[in-house]
Amino acid sequence: MKECVIIDGVRTANARAHEEKGWFRNLTPDVLLTSCYEALFQRNSKVKPDDIEAVFCGSANQSGIQNDIARLGWLAGGFPESVPANGIGQQCCSGMAAVEHAARAILCGEGDVYVAAGVEDMQHVGMGANMEFPRRFLERYPPEEIPMGPTAEKVAELYKVSRPDMETMAYWSNIKAWEATVAGKFKDEIVPVEGEKEDGTKFVVDRDQWVRESVSMEKMASMQPSFKLDGLITAATSSPLTTGACALLLMSKDKADALGLRYHLKYAGSAMAGCDPTIMGVGPIYAAQKLLSRAGLTVKDVGVWELNEAFASQSLAVLRELGIAQNAPFENVNIWGGALALGHPLGETGARLIVTLNSIMKTDRKGARYGVAMLCGGMGNANASLWQRVE
Ligand SMILES: CC(C)(COP(=O)(O)OP(=O)(O)OC[C@H]1O[C@@H](n2cnc3c(N)ncnc32)[C@H](O)[C@@H]1OP(=O)(O)O)[C@@H](O)C(=O)NCCC(=O)NCCS
Asked: Phi and psi at residue 121, in whole multiples of 5°?
C-alpha cells in the first residue's frame, strides 16, 4: 500500500454566520472554498490544478447555494473541468470524511494527488434547512430529542457534566484561541479573504471572528439556557453558528518525494463509529477507541488531540470517558482553542481539525509522534483520524 502525506492545509477564517454581523455575510461558500484552493496552488507551485486526481469536499447541508458545492465550487473558481469533484455528506463529520476518502484513495493507488475540503455557510444555508425526517426514523427516536441542543443537554445529564465545568472549558477554549490568535499561530493556515465589518467597512479577514479578547466566568454564569428553560447549556457552552471553508493538498509519499516536497504527517488510519442519535456527541468515544485499538496504541501515545467542541458537555464526556482529561485547561487537547471559541462551520470543521493538528505538530509540538483529530456528527455518526510524524 502507498502512504498518504499532508503537503499543505489552509482555511479561511471562521466568521460569524449572521446576516448583519457576519464578516462573510455578503460572500457565498464557493468564494470561500475557491480562496482556499487558489492559496494551495499558489503556495505549492509544483502542483497544478490539472494534476489533481479528484476533489472530495464535505458539507453538512448540501442544499441551496451549497447544493453540489463540491463540483460547482470547483468550476465557479475557474478550475479544470477534467478534475472530478465528489461531495461528501456526513453532517459535521463531512470534512473529515472528505480527507479520509482522499487518503484511502491514495493508499489504494487510485491516484497520487487529491484535494480534500470542507465548507459550511451557516448563514445562507441554515442548520437543518430543507431537511425532512423519515416517518419511521421519528417513530424510532423522540423528535424533540433529535436537534443538536437537546442532545447536548441529554449528554450533560447522563454523563453528569456540570454547568461550571462546561463554562470552565469555554473559558479556556477562548483564552487559548485568543493567545494563539495574538501570537499569530493561525497565520500560516488562514487565507486572507476580503469581508465586511459590522459597520459595512471592507477589510481583509485573517482572524476568527468569534474569538473573544476577554471572557468572563461571571458573565457566562449569568447567561440563559439556550435549549430548555431549566437546561444547562448556553450560547457560551455551545459552538456558535459559523461560516468557513478549508482545503488540504494530499499526496502519495512517493510523488511528494519525487517532487521534492516537504511534509510532516502521514495518514495512519481512521475509524467511524455510530451511536444513539439522541446523544450523538459521545460518538468520538467509540471512534477513538476503535482507532487506537486498531493501531495498537493507547491514549498516552497520542501527543496532540484535536476534538471538535460541538458543545462543552459532549467534549467533556468524551475526554473523561477516554481517560484523556477531566477538566479544562487540557494539556494536549485543542492546544490553540476549540470550536467553543473558534466556531464550527459544520461540514468544514473535520478538515479544519486536521489542518490545525498539522500546524500544531509542525510548530508547538514537534516532539509528538501521533496526533488524533475527532468529532461527533448529528444523527449519531463520529469520525476519528490518526496522523503520524514522518519527517
Ligand atoms: C446556542 C445557540 C442557539 C445560540 O444562538 P444565539 O441565541 O443566536 O446566540 P449567539 O451565538 O448569537 O450569542 C448570543 C449572544 O451571546 C454572546 N455570547 C456568546 N458566548 C459568549 C461568551 N462566552 N461570553 C460573552 N458573551 C457570549 C454572543 O456574542 C451574542 O451576543 P452579541 O450578539 O451581542 O455578540 C447557537 O449558537 C447554536 O445553535 N449553537 C449550536 C450549533 C450546533 O448545533 N452545531 C452543531 C453541533 S453538533
From this structure: -115, 90
Stretch 161-172: mean pLDDT, rounded? Answer: 98
- Tell me the three cell numbers of residue 284: 468520538
pLDDT level of residue 101 (50, 70, 90 thresholds): very high
> Catalytic: 92?
yes
SS3 content of the chain, % helix, strand, coil (to 5): 40, 20, 40
What SS3 state is found at 58? strand
Residues 6+ apart with CB under 8 A from 230: none
pLDDT tens digits, one per residue of 115-129: 999 999 999 999 999
384 vs 252, 270, 280, CA distance in Å?
21, 6, 14
Among the listed residues 372, 349, 350, 374, the one whose alpha carbon sits nearest the alpha carbon of residue 361: 372
| Closest C-alpha residue for ligand 1 atom 9 | 235
Domains of the chain: 141-186+268-385 (3.40.47.10)
Q: Is-contact 155 314, C-beta < 8 A?
A: yes
pLDDT of residue 391: 74
Alpha-carbon gap, residue 211 to 205, rounded angstroms: 13
- Any catalytic annotation for residue 344? yes
Tell me the mean pLDDT in the region 157-172.
Answer: 98
Alpha-carbon separation of residue 87 from 71, 90, 96, 126, 131 (angstroms): 7, 10, 12, 18, 17
Find out whether 149 and 280 touch, Cβ atoms under 8 Å.
no
Task: Kindly state if the Cβ of 343 falls inside 6 Å of ligand 1.
Answer: no
Cβ–ligand 1 distance for 236 under 6 Å, the answer yes
Q: Is 108 a catalytic residue?
A: no
Can you give the pTM of this predicted structure?
0.98
Region 274-280: what's the mean pLDDT? 98
Ligand 1 contacts CB of residue 58 (under 6 A): no
Distance 242 CA to ligand 1 centre (A): 10
